[in-house]
Design brief:
four-stranded antiparallel beta sheet, single chain, 11% strand, 14 helices, elongated, 8 strands, alpha+beta, Chitinase A, domain 3, four-stranded mixed beta sheet
């Protein structure tokens, strides 16, 4: 389950360049998985609380197009090592460096150290990971403040787990890492406590949201599809299918999509394809359907995939819970004053030192808070 915050505590300019999409698919997801692990289960609800598709570069002038409503000020009165402040919550440079360096080493484990040296991409990739870190930490701080407003605190067991997690992760750092990150054990403990509070306030807000999802609403079907660019050619292939030719063989020989068989629920395909597919009986074949990217022929494999439908029910329920959470979160974030130390943040760069290999910050959190 992915919790998608609609509003980020710092504003963004969606026209700015984002990290290339390559890093969002395939092996690239592996690199982000570690960052998701610290909130991976949290009562089975907070699975990827802060890890989005890469964030756009922020500005200090607009928030969802509402510049005049955004309470953002410059760096007046900020401490030397403060990256940002949201209301009374502060994020220091060591916190940001722990997060940044763990993500950096996770990416390098997948792509190799040369990922940052691809011609023309160093600046965009490095800035992309920096803005991801800024966004995720800003959300943690905002949710910590929300927890305070709601009176949510960690209980004794949760405090003990945070202490143990901090002990383990801090002990894993070598002296070079401690020095270059500028980190002390107290910083690590504070970070784990705040992440745990963020997870806990989310659970509290959504704990009474138990939407009833019908089988029909969540119904998932399995189909085989042939996509072709030319309508006449698609009509000819469809005629062969009607005359008894094996559909899968026809798809393999003629479809312009490598994927032939797929399962999906309502709202996951464009309207014309969805309507045709959901109206088919088992083994029935559709006519030629005009889609936005070609002409489709569909064969129904299953009108009701029970396992996928159950998964889709949970997905829809999670979306409803996220909506409930976002309503409260959005209203709360709108009230917060934000300060960003642009000069300090612009000076931050990735650490390039062979002795700095730490990448287990998020995995340690998951081990200690799994099941809460």
């Amino acid at each position: 389950m992915i919790v998608k915050m609609r509003r980020h505590p710092f504003p963004f300019d969606e026209t700015k360049e984002k990290v290339p999409a390559k890093r969002r698919d395939g092996a690239g997801q592996t690199a982000r998985r570690g960052a998701a692990r610290f909130c991976a289960r949290c009562a089975g609800r907070l699975a990827c609380l802060f890890v989005w598709t890469f964030l756009a570069v922020p500005t200090l002038l607009s928030l969802n197009g509402c510049a005049d409503e955004t309470k953002v000020v410059l760096t007046t009165g900020m401490k030397e090592d403060e990256v940002f402040r949201i209301a009374e919550a502060s994020c220091t440079l060591p916190e940001a460096m722990v997060y940044l360096t763990n993500l950096q080493n996770q990416y390098e484990a997948v792509y190799g150290e040369q990922i940052w040296d691809v011609k023309g991409s160093r600046e965009s990739l490095e800035e992309g990971i920096k803005e991801q870190v800024l966004g995720e930490l800003a959300q943690v701080k905002s949710m910590m403040l929300l927890a305070g407003q709601r009176g949510v605190v960690l209980d004794e067991t949760e405090q003990q787990r945070a202490q143990a997690a901090a002990d383990e992760y801090f002990a894993s750092l070598n002296e070079t890492e401690k020095a270059l990150l500028g980190v002390e054990r107290a910083t690590i403990l504070q970070m784990y406590q705040e992440y745990a509070l963020a997870a806990k306030v989310y659970r509290q807000i959504v704990e009474d949201v138990n939407p009833e999802i019908s089988d029909d609403e969540a119904r998932t079907i399995t189909v085989q599809m042939i996509r072709m660019s030319e309508k006449n050619a698609a009509e000819a292939v469809r005629q062969q299918a009607e005359e008894g030719a094996d559909f899968e063989t026809l798809a393999q020989e003629n479809s312009e999509d490598p994927e032939i068989t797929c399962s999906f629920g309502k709202g996951e395909k464009e309207a014309a394809i969805e309507k045709a597919a959901f109206n088919l009986g088992k083994d029935e074949i559709s006519g030629v359907i005009a889609g936005t990217d070609g002409f489709y022929i569909i064969r129904c494999v299953s009108t009701f995939d029970e396992a996928q439908t159950l998964l889709n029910k949970e997905k829809i329920a999670d979306e409803r819970r996220n909506e409930a959470f976002n309503r409260e979160y959005d209203t709360f974030v709108d009230s917060l004053v934000r300060q960003l130390n642009e000069e300090l943040w612009d000076s931050v760069t990735l650490i390039r030192d062979d002795a700095v290999t730490t990448s287990g910050f998020f995995a340690v959190y998951e081990r200690y808070f799994d099941g809460l």
